[in-house]
Here is the input.
Amino acid sequence: MREYEVVFVAHPDLDENALNDLINKVRGWITEGGGEVSKTDLWGKRKLAYPIRKQREGQYVLLHSNMAPSFGAQLERNLRFTEPVLRFLLVVKS
Here is the structure.
């Protein structure tokens, strides 16, 4: 198990319930893959450096997690095909 930081930018028009559902979905993927989420930080709505899918703002979420290195590719695939996620980054924490 390795420590990872998963940061994703969600669509700015998501209401609080939809954003919480999205966060719970990502947390569920991590726990189903044999990992665990130790901390969730909501950074809130922030302006993007450049437009992504015609959006100038996004809601940022940071998840601190422990998971197997082999699960990273599957998590990235799931995030890539999730419509409300504009961008994501999966980083090994040193």
